[in-house]
Amino acid sequence: MVFISGGYNVKLYDNQPGQAAKAITEIRKQLDELEEAHMLRGQLKASQQHALLSSHDDLAQALEGAFFVQECVFEQLEVKQSVFRDIECLVGEDVILSSSTSCLVPSNVFSKVQNRSRCLVSHPVNPPYYVKLVELVPHPETAAVVMDTARTFMTKVGQVPVCLRKEIDGFALNRVQAAIIAESWRLVQDGIISVQDIDLVMSEGLGMRYAFIGPMETMHLNAPDGLVDYMKRYGEGIRRVLASFGPVPEFSGESAKSVVKEMYELIPNDGQHLSARIARRDQLLMSLAKLKEEH
Question: How many domains is the chain built from?
Fold first, then answer.
């Protein structure tokens, strides 16, 4: 949906016949809902964006005329490598090859590609229509012009791209997220706080600030004379707290049972409850995205 918003023709391909057509039906439905909610991106109406979509069961046909290819298969390295090996045989040298992987580094994803200078990871955040960030992660051989082109392209379609200067396991977003997850899990597992309350620490505390400004600006604004002053005041305390962090949790087994039990009591682990909470999440993110647009 994101690329359509920029007025680009978007071709969907799936190696399972009929799956791409099913996906387009769902996308068109979502576009209509977004238009009704006054959240549709771009200058085109939903019906006009519908016309930019096409589905294909033949890869060569789907790639015809492409200048940017975004792969979105599941997180299995061998599958992604195979997909890009097939794609490279069907497109010109100037076509950018991009993966949506969230945890595989570009040097592994594109290891079977001959021309790696046009390869990068474009990692979106779920759901990408409301959470606009996309991480652009270069392969060690990626040309600077490819990164610049990808950044311009993502900006044009309404995303907010950030460029990593080199690859690293987890990229930026998931490394920060992993740190939050680990300490939140430890605090619950060690009996310091409940699942419900640690979520409130983020949703009613840190998240209120981080919805509009990040941790670096937060520090800069939270001391009279900026970042250096903040570190003079709080740096020693931050170091002391960091030194007290425990080992990385296992996230499974006996030690995890109490955390999982609490979570399931709050939101039962069945399709009905999970679907309702996902719908609520998306509705809240839509409202927040609208608020951010206004500001």
Answer: 2
